[in-house]
Amino acid sequence: MTGRGGDLDTATADPIARDDRVPFFRHDLGAAELAAVAEILSGSILTTGEAVARFEHLFADYLGRRHCVGLTSCTGALHLSLAALGIGPGDEVITTPMTFIASTTSIIQAGATPVFVDVEKGSGNIDAALIEAAITPRTRAILPVHLYGQMCDMRAIRAIADRHRLAIVEDSAHCVEGARDGIRPGQLGDTACFSFYATKSLTSGEGGALVTDDGALAGRARLLRHHGMDKSAHARHGSVYQHWDMVAFGWKYNMDNIQAALLLPQLERIEAGHARRCALSDAYRQALSGIEGLSLPPVIPGVRHAEHLFTIRVDPAHRDPLLRHLGESGIGTAVNYRAIHLLDYFQRTLKAPHGSFPAAEAIGDRTLSLPLYATMPQHHVERVAAAINAYFREPHCRAP
Ligand SMILES: *Cc1c(COP(=O)(O)O)cnc(C)c1O
Q1: Cβ(165)–Cβ(87) below 8 Å
Q2: What is the distance between the alpha carbons of residues 395 and 5, in angstroms, rounded to a whole number?
Q3: Confidence grade of residue 15 (pLDDT, cut at 50, 70, 90)
């Protein structure tokens, strides 16, 4: 076992798997993670315990934040952040329609009302210049998303939040390693929320966390992540059984020791993985530079891009045919994202018509995501570029 990529390979069991397939994503969990999980299994605490505490300490440390609360998802982290901030029914939270649905469903889970603001045409991040026009007496928070790994303009968003006494909950699911003008996730927000879902750059299959510099908020999140119970399993089952009390209404979002064990070894190679994705991203830029009909989201000056997703943009008439062409060429792709206000449920409930958020809709009609992960072989970049090139060169591939 090498500890990187392939140790837990099940691709050979997949009847459609081919040697020349270019997967969209592969995790790089291996020997180190197996050993870490084995250590947990040899102990007695499977749920939240010492491994979670160790992860929380190291993850907060990596981000330069004071506190980290280990959770079961980023969706839970967003919901819990809002709940811990006391945001609920009657409150409005400003967010972006260019994101995964969880950024918005978490607001609804908290009982609050999402209010969309359009995004910057280039980066796809919430447009800070449009936020103030959306603020009402009910607005309590702003929930920006650091799309693809480029941080939003947090200085501008913090200034607006301060003027209107609003909280900020950052959806940092794409942005672990990123920074902007020296600002890192969670530094100017009340909390920043992370995902350790199966295709994220740190993964425990499912998992999440929030970070904050506010000790009281961290304490509240810790209480609410576990039913509002005032004692953890670890504390209840010491040598003498301890009674516990329920002191608040809470949820069930606590990270367990197995998830933490999977994450701990990945923290040690986090910068190496980021460097590798940066190199692949540069290779993509080079390989795609000559292809007409394709553009890339601009890199914002002063940004350290977390390089979670590598996206390209094409004419809307070409997007779905190109997706099909790449799929048929054995190349994994995704769309991050179609503007979420246009999805069926939000159409029925929030009722923002087509044209409400033109910049988000323009990206949603044009974007597609190419394979990018730390252990991706360099020659796959050339395979992907060649397939895209072929699509635009060969008339039979083109959209009707
Ligand atoms: C993945 C993702 C989430 C949800 O993360 P989970 O851990 O699956 O809940 C939220 N927001 C964004 C932008 C994401 O990419």
Answers
A1: no
A2: 38
A3: very low
